[in-house]
Each structure stands twice: as C-alpha cells, then as structure tokens.
Design goal:
heterodimer; A: alpha/beta; B: alpha/beta; six-stranded parallel beta sheet; five-stranded mixed beta sheet
C-alpha cells in the first residue's frame, strides 16, 4: 500500500513496494517479494544483486565488484543502495533474477522394486495423497503421489526462499541468532516456500484429493528450522544438533499451510550436525545399506557429504566443501539455470574455448559441471599448472581484470550480461579447496576404518551436479579418489528418491530409521589425518598423480 | 601388521547394542584400532574375538622410560613404520657423553657445555636429553661420585656406560633418578640382575641381530624387563641396516623377541658419528650417544630431529598477540587474522611480500582458520573488539583503523559499533594482500580524531 512517501517500482515485474527511509533496495525487494538474487544475504560480498536505478539514491557503487563503466551507466548493488525518496524505478538485471530450475531432477531408486505398502491411507474423502519433499539448502523439490496406488501425480521444484537470508547454512544460523526475529523469518520463509511448492503440486495434479502424508528429507539445519527448534548449537563445538530424530507430527503442529495442515509429517532423522536426513534418504535410495560390497556415496551440494559402508556398517561425514560447484565463490559462477555454460572444451593449440549452454540464448556464467570441465580443460591444455597457477601457455585467451589475470571463456560481446565470462586464479583456488575437501573426506573415511580404496565396489554420486558432471573431468582434477570410472553411478536427486521410496513403502521408512542409528557420524574436524589428506588434494589432480593417471588411462584402453 | 578397524569390526557382534558406550560397533572398532578402548568393554564379544584383540592391542614396540619427572625420556612405543601411516610419538633421544676420569675442572666445564646444548627454534626449545657417563677410571667410588655430580649439575637423566662393579656403585648413588644401565657385553648378566632388582632400564649390547637374539634372551632370563637393544654396528651403513631390521621385526613381523627400542653408542672412534646420527634420527634410532658437545654438531642434529618428529597432522597454533611486519610505526596499517598456523604463515608471508610495514593481530581462536572460527562463533565482532581493547595495539598506533579479512566482511559493522575502530574490509584471499596494502591511501592511518 503506497502512502505519501511513495513507492519503489521494480522492473521487469512491475511490483511497487512502499518506500521506507533507511532501507536498502534489497530490503525493499525482499519485503515486496520481488525476485532478486542475493546469495551472500546482503553482505555486499557476492556482487550478484545488480540493478539499474533511475532516481536519486546513494551508495551501491562498490568499486570492488562493479567496474567504473558499470557505475557510470547507473548499475548499483541493491544491498548497498539506499533510495532517497519514494520516486524511483529500479530494473533488475537479467543475471540478477532467479530463474526457475530448467528441469525437475528425478532421483534413481536403486534399492529395487518394493511392494506398494503406503504409510497411511486414511483420507476423510477423495483420494489419499502423499508428498515426498527434498528440502535443500538452495532448492526445494517435491513429488505428489496417489497413496491408493502409488502413481506419481505431479512434480515441482522451487528456490528455497531462505536464500535471501544467506546462501550457506552457517550464514542462516547466524542470521537467526543475530537478527531480531531472524529465526521466525527464516522458518516462515521455509514454510511458505514449502507451502507454495505443495500448492503447485496439487494444482498440477490430475486427481483431486487430500494430502494425508508428507515425508521430508533435509539437512540438519533445515530440519531444525522446519521442526521449530534452534539450529544454533550446530555451528559451535562439539557441533551437535539439538535433536537427531523428529517424531511424526501433523502439519498444523509445525505451522504448515492449510494444504498439509492435517497430514502427518515425517522428517528423515539426522546423523549429525552436518550430515542430515537428506543423506539418510540418499543411502536409502542407493541401496548401499543392503549390499555386501562396500560402496561410497557422495552428495555434492552446497556442502559435500560422504558415506562409506555396506549392509553391516556405515560411516558418514560432511566436508566443508563450499559451494564452488553451485556457482558460489566463483566470480562467474551461477546455478544450473538457462544461460549457464554446462560443458567446456579447450583447443590446446589455440586456447580457444568451445562450450554448450543450458537452454537457448547467450551464456551468462558457468554452472558446476561447466566449472569442473573448465578446470580440467585448463589443466589438460597446460594453461594452468599442478598448483593451479597460470603458465605461460595460452596467454592469448587471457585478460587482466580487477580480480587478477583471468581466462576468458566467453568475451563480453557474446555473453548475456555484456561482461566477460572469465575465470581467474582465485576462482580456481576456490575449486581446488572444494575438490580437495570432498576427496579428502572420502579418503579420511577409508583411513578411519582401515580399508584400501580398491575395496570400494561402487561409487554413487547424488545431487544435480552429480548427474551432469563429466566423470573424466572430475577425475582429471581429482574431485573423487582415483577409482575406475566404471564403478561410478549417478543417482540424481537421491534424497527425493529416498523420501518417495519411504512414502510408498512403510517398511522402508522403518529401514531409514534403523539405518540412521546404525550409521556412524565421523567428525572430520577432530580427525587428525584429515588436514594432511586435504593438503595433498590441493593440487591438480592430487599429489598422488600416478593413481589418477592409471585410472584415466585404463579407461582409454578399455 | 596392526589390525584395522574393519578387521576388528568383523570380530565384533555387529549388533550396535551400545553396551560399550559407543553408538555403533564400527565406532567401537575404531576406538580399539586407535588403542583407545579394550575388547573388555564389549560384554557380548566372543572368546575368539577376545583372544585375537587382546594380542592386537599390545603395542608392537614397548615403551621404555629413562629418568623421572619433567626430564623423563621415553623410547619406543611406536606403532607404525612410516610417519604418514599415522604418526611417530617419541623422537630419537640424544645423549652427550662425559668421562669420569676428567679432572674436576674439566668435568664441571664439560657438564656446563652439555647444559648449554639447548636452542630455541620456531618457538620451541630443542635440547640434548641425557648425559652418558663413561667409566674410564675403573674406580667404583669415583664413578659413583661422577654420576651424582652429573645428575646434580644438569638435572638430565643418565646413561651409565660402565662395567658391573662401577655400575652397581653408581646405581646406589643415582637409582631414584632412573638411569639407563649400559654394561659392556661381558657384564650383561650381573647388570641384568641389578636392573631386575632395582626395576631399571637396561641397554643390551651384542653384535648384530643374531648376537642380540642370544643377549636379549639372557637379559630376560635374568629378570630384566625394560630393555633397549644395541646391535653394536661398526659403520653408519651397518647402523641403519640394523636399526631398520629391528624396527621391521617389531612392527611388521610382530616378533616380540626383538620388539625393543634401539640404542647406538656413536662415540669412542665410531666412523662419521654425525652422519650415522643423522641417518639414525631418520631411521629408527631410539637413543644415540655422542662424544661431541660442540653446538655446531648438535644444533643441526636437533633441528633435523625437530623437523622429522613434529606431527604435520596437528597444525601448530601460533601464540596470539601483536606481531610486527617489517618495522611498523604508529601510523602503519593494522591487520587481523586467526592463530591457525597455516593461516598465520600464509598471511604473514603475503603481508611481508607487500613490503609495507604493518601490525598483525593474531586472535586466539583455538587454532582455527578465519571462516571456521567465524562459523564456530570464536571470531566475532565481540571477540575482535575485546582483542583491540586488550592487546595493547591502541598504544602502538595513533590511528583507529583495522583491516579485516574479506571473508568476514559481515563483522565490520559490529566491530565498528563495539570498539569504535573504523574497519576496512581487506581482500578475501591473502594472496591479494600485497596489492591491497600497496594501494591503501596513507591518509587511512592518520591519528584518530575526537
């Protein structure tokens, strides 16, 4: 409701937000529900909330993230730009608008076909419906199932609205602690995001009915927000969550929207502060807990989680892998939306980059699989050395930028944003840290139980990134331990697949509960060997070059 | 080879019954493998499991201690052949010798020289550990007096290199200090009886592995239990070969007959004693006796030992405080980072590369890196403001401007509110510090107003 103070108009959505003096443009956008990216949570670190302003404002001319030319054309960072009056119009630049995920990603359920034994089938009228949810740090995904016969009725995905209060989980926990009403705000955002998703599922469903059961898998922090308990202890030593099990309750107890208020909510149990129910659901979907052979499960997301084990024993850990493969911490990184470069090849002679982009149109940045390919290609072409520094080769493709020397993948005149899609040494360092942490986490688990990596018969890779990554590129840079490529299997959204499996068969829900208590949580921060393993991984591909070379060359011969 | 957690797990009931206090059988197996738990804590364990696991739990190389209290020297107690497999626990002990037939004056000055063989390096004190007293006089009384004098002057534990008679006399004088008895081979049996009776450690010397197999059995038969084996090599090459074979027998073959720490007397005309010493520090010498007390000989050896035995898996924490980069003045920039050693050395190196004098504040966050410390709530607006107020930087500079790591830019507001310091957000990567520091306008560090 616009009063005398006027309102700020946000384009291209045409949303008017009442002007409040002293609030940043980002705060206005958040208040008005205007979609605007802010992965760092308004800390002016990421430089992704770019807007063009007409009217009088102050601030937002951060020289660290904006070039002089950009500032001169009126581009500002919304988190640092304060309107002087309510007579301003703001255009959100294309790269700063969250796009919907290009495609809903299914998960594979490798545990095999199970008889249909739904959790509950009591509906007061109409068809009993079940909802399986994967509550991710950045994405929410859901599947609607007819509980009378198990058919999937609809699928949907949405951004996690908590993103606006911090890209990573720790930022959100800090936000909950330090902002007045922060916890309620984050919880409210999660519940409204989930409610929106469920409503979209119901709208898209061909059969009307009543939701009687919800099975949700999420990381420990999100599960705590959902259950209404403070996640604060998780970020402090000894990093224990308040609770690991979340007894089933009706939605109205949780405060969910009316669509699921009368349904019973089951939340997957957590293993530890940083290994949550999403990983338990992933194990359930992989079926590794039923096999005699030993498997490794990687869940590559904002954090990387790794599970090692078989039907008798399992050990899991979380590595502070960082979001480099979700586009965070990398200058031209973005999530796997249309406009993201998803694969890259570099011609070693000319250092010319060839790429493919998601959807039609010009590239705006690099998503995880593109970043992975680019690093592998830069290394293969000899443009970067083992330590991740540029060599003298292929300097034709390089430009000097404010962030240091950078390899230009797409020059500004061909990109969607008008800026170069470029990759500099600090981006590569960020990737090196991420991949070293993930690989070392797996090696630390093997060392903890005393198994050689040859004992690993299968490697499951869960997560959207895991589905689209090029395994050869992954092993070229040493993202995983050197295990023959043939043993790898992508799982897609295993967390959602696990939730769906439990929804369709109550025995599997019980299995999930028991496998959680039989899986050991290994805290890497107190593992004295981890640091050394990590440091060995800070090279391309690793200090143990020989093992990687033999795994990759065996593949060529095969 | 030691049993791995998985080997142990296979022997356990696999019921996750939690009676041992661990959440799963695997967790318990990992505790046993790490030597932190015993199979006795598992009530449902089978007889077979008990038998196999109690044998596996004994350390492959027993522990022998010489001396008491703070100066106690520990030999052996190692579990792996290579440091990267797990870690080494006890560095090679180094003894410097002194003869009992020296004049009183020479004796005292030699002891003083031994006492001075202590150096500070990268914040740690590295020193010679023991005094080896050679019986050259053959006089029991004189030897006993020399032992008491050496003990009194240095406080270091003793290695008593003497025949049975003087040895017994010295033990009378010095037994409570727990010296190592080191008789010549022909006096082994009486010395072993003495060691058994007084519960003292004994060095068993014989030629080669074959010689040791007989001598060690004799010492055990005489009742001595705390043994150190000296294969009496004649060349450095011999020494390394014997030491390596002894350690392999203990760790790989689990041969209890040879599972003892090793000792080498590199004095008395041993060829290339420091070459041999350096090789034996790297390869399995538990105790070395040297005749030189020259710091030029000992410092390199102690440095080598420190480098090899510092566990790289446990990053050293840096002492919190204010560190100068170059020769900073009252208008030099003030930077802050955390006391994780890797963070400190990286930031320090980059700050030095800038060639801009600065003050570097090292915050006490229990050795965590910047982001980890922030995530764990140890590197906060509150803790940084407290440090600014208490570390004395306020007297060292006239300005009130702090350069904060870019990774924790979000703390800047809180620090400014609480401390009154102005915050400049530095680069996220330490590697960008040189260009950042060089570009800083000098006006940023003018005296504070008001």
């Amino acid at each position: 409701m616009a009063d005398e103070a006027g309102s700020i108009r946000f384009h291209p959505d045409g949303i008017d937000v009442p002007f409040v003096p002293g609030e940043s443009l980002l705060a206005h956008a958040l208040r008005g529900g205007v979609p605007l990216l802010s992965p760092c949570g308004g800390e002016s670190r990421c430089g992704k909330c770019r807007v063009v302003v007409t009217g009088e404002t102050r601030g937002g001319e951060d020289p660290g993230t904006l070039t002089r030319a950009e500032i001169a054309t009126g581009i500002r960072l919304a988190c640092r730009c304060f309107p002087s009056s309510g007579d301003i119009s703001v255009t959100i630049l294309p790269g700063s608008r969250p796009a919907r995920l290009a495609a809903y990603l299914d998960g594979k359920d490798l545990a095999g076909d199970e008889p249909f034994l739904p959790l509950s089938r009591a509906a007061s009228g109409g068809v009993p419906l079940g909802v399986a949810l994967d509550l991710g740090t950045s994405t929410l995904a859901g599947t609607l199932v007819d509980l009378s016969d198990g058919t999937v009725l609809s699928r949907a995905t949405a951004d996690n609205p908590q993103m606006a209060c911090g890209e990573d989980l720790i930022s959100r926990v800090v936000f909950a602690e330090e902002t007045t009403g922060g916890f309620e705000r984050l919880r409210g955002r999660l519940l409204s995001g989930v409610d929106g998703l469920v409503r979209r599922l119901l709208e898209a469903s061909p059969a009307p009915g009543e939701v009687t059961d919800v099975v949700a898998a999420g990381n420990t922090v999100i599960s705590h927000f959902l259950y209404g308990i403070s996640p604060s202890p998780i970020r402090r030593p000894p990093y224990h969550p308040v609770r690991k099990e979340y007894p089933a309750v009706p939605g109205e107890t949780l405060g969910t929207g009316p669509a699921t208020a009368r349904a019973i909510w089951r939340i997957f149990p957590s293993l530890g502060g940083f290994v949550g129910g999403d990983v338990v659901a992933g194990i359930l979907a992989s079926g590794m807990h039923r096999q005699e052979e030993v498997s490794l499960l990687f869940d590559v997301g904002t954090n990387g989680e790794v599970v090692l084990g078989n039907r008798d024993w399992r050990i899991a850990c979380s590595s502070s892998a960082g979001p480099a493969f979700e586009g965070g911490e990398v200058g031209c990184g973005m999530r796997a939306y249309p406009g993201a470069i998803e694969s890259v090849r570099i011609e070693p002679e000319t250092a010319a980059a060839d790429w493919t982009v998601i959807g039609r149109g010009r590239p705006a940045g690099l998503c995880g699989s593109g970043i992975l390919d680019l690093c592998a290609e830069l290394f293969r072409a000899g443009i970067v050395d083992r330590t991740g520094r540029f060599t003298s080769r292929g300097d034709g493709g390089r430009r000097s930028t404010e962030r240091g020397e950078a390899f230009v993948v797409v020059p500004g005149e061909k990109s969607a944003t008008g800026r170069d899609v470029a990759f500099c040494e600090s981006d590569l360092k960020s990737v090196l840290r991420t991949k070293a942490a993930l690989c070392a986490a797996a090696e630390a688990l093997l060392a903890a139980v005393g198994l050689p990596r040859e004992a690993v018969a299968r490697v499951y890779v869960a997560g959207g990134f895991g589905n689209f990554l090029d395994l050869r590129s992954a092993l070229t840079i040493g993202l995983f331990p050197p295990i023959p490529l043939g043993r790898f299997a992508p799982l897609g959204n295993a967390s959602l697949a696990g939730a769906l499996g439990a929804l369709r068969n109550r025995r599997r829900w019980k299995e999930a509960l028991s496998l959680a208590s039989g899986t050991l949580y290994h805290d890497l921060s107190s593992d004295p060997g981890f640091m050394e393993l990590y440091q060995r991984g800070l090279f391309l591909p690793h200090t143990d070059e020989e093992s990687y070379r033999s795994v990759l060359s065996a593949e060529v011969r095969a | 080879m030691a049993l791995t957690a998985i080997d142990i797990y296979k022997l356990l009931p696999k019921t996750n019954c939690k009676k041992c206090g661990q959440s799963t059988c695997l967790a318990f197996a990992m505790q046993i493998a790490a030597g932190k738990a015993s199979i006795d804590l598992c009530p449902p364990a089978s007889e077979e499991a008990r038998e196999k696991l109690s044998a596996a739990a004994a350390p492959p190389l027993p522990k022998v201690t010489i001396g008491i209290g703070e100066r106690e020297v520990v030999l052996g107690d190692e579990t792996v052949l290579f440091r990267h497999e797990k870690t080494f626990y006890h560095p090679t002990a180094i003894a410097v010798s002194i003869r009992d037939d020296a004049s009183d004056e020479e004796f005292a000055s030699r002891l003083a020289a031994i006492r001075r063989l202590s150096f500070e390096r990268v914040g740690q004190q590295i020193s010679v550990d023991l005094v080896a007293l050679r019986c050259a006089s053959g006089d029991s009384d004189r030897y006993a007096r020399a032992a008491a004098a050496a003990l009194e002057a240095t406080g270091l534990p003793l290695v008593l290199l003497a025949p049975a008679g003087p040895l017994a006399a010295a033990v009378e004088a010095a037994a409570p200090s727990r010296p190592l008895l080191a008789p010549p081979p022909e006096d082994l049996v009486p010395a072993a009886k003495l060691a058994a009776e007084r519960k003292l450690p004994l060095r068993v010397r014989a030629r080669g592995i074959e010689g040791l197999s007989v001598a060690l059995a004799d010492a055990r038969a005489a009742g001595a239990t705390s043994l150190v084996a000296d294969p009496s090599p004649e060349t450095p090459r011999d020494a390394v070969s014997f030491a390596t074979n002894l350690r392999r027998l203990a760790i790989l073959s689990r041969n209890r007959d040879f599972a003892y720490p090793s000792a080498f007397d590199l004095g008395g005309g041993f060829p290339d004693p420091f070459l041999a010493a350096a090789l034996l520090v790297a390869k399995y010498g538990s105790l070395l006796v040297l005749d030189s007390a020259d710091p030029a000989d000992l410092l390199p050896l102690l440095t080598l030992r420190q480098n090899l035995f510092t566990d790289p898996q446990r990053p050293i924490q840096v002492e919190p405080g204010v560190y100068p980069i170059g020769a900073p003045s009252e208008s030099s920039p003030v930077l802050i980072t955390t006391n994780f050693s890797l963070t400190y050395f990286t930031v320090r190196g980059d700050a030095e590369a800038a060639k801009v004098p600065a003050h570097l504040l090292i915050a006490d966050v229990d050795g965590m890196s910047v982001l980890t410390a922030w995530a764990a709530g140890k590197f906060t607006g509150e803790s940084i403001s407290k440090m600014l107020a208490e570390c004395g930087i306020g007297e060292k500079v006239t300005h009130r401007t702090l350069i904060l790591p870019g990774m924790v830019a979000r703390l800047s507001g809180r620090i400014e509110e609480l401390s009154g310091w102005r915050v400049l957000v530095g680069p996220q990567e330490s590697s960008a510090l040189p260009s950042y520091l060089r570009r800083l306008p000098p006006a940023a560090f003018l005296p504070a107003h008001g």
